[in-house]
Amino acid sequence: MAERLLILILILCTVLFLPFAAISADTEGEKTGAELWRQLNHTSDTILQYIRESRYEEAHQLLDSFSDQFLSIRASDYHLSMSELQVITSVYEEVDEAVVSVSLPHEERVNKAAKLRLLVDVYDKAHQPLWKKTKSSLFEPASALKAAVEEGDTGKFTQNMERLTGAYEIVKPAWSVSLKPEEFQQLNALVNYLKNTGLQGENTAVLLDRINLLEAKLTYIFEGKKDEASDPSLIWVILTIGGAIVTALTYSGWRKYKGEKEEEYKPEKRRNR
Question: How far does the chain reach from its first CA to its final CA, in angstroms?
Answer without folding.
Answer: 109
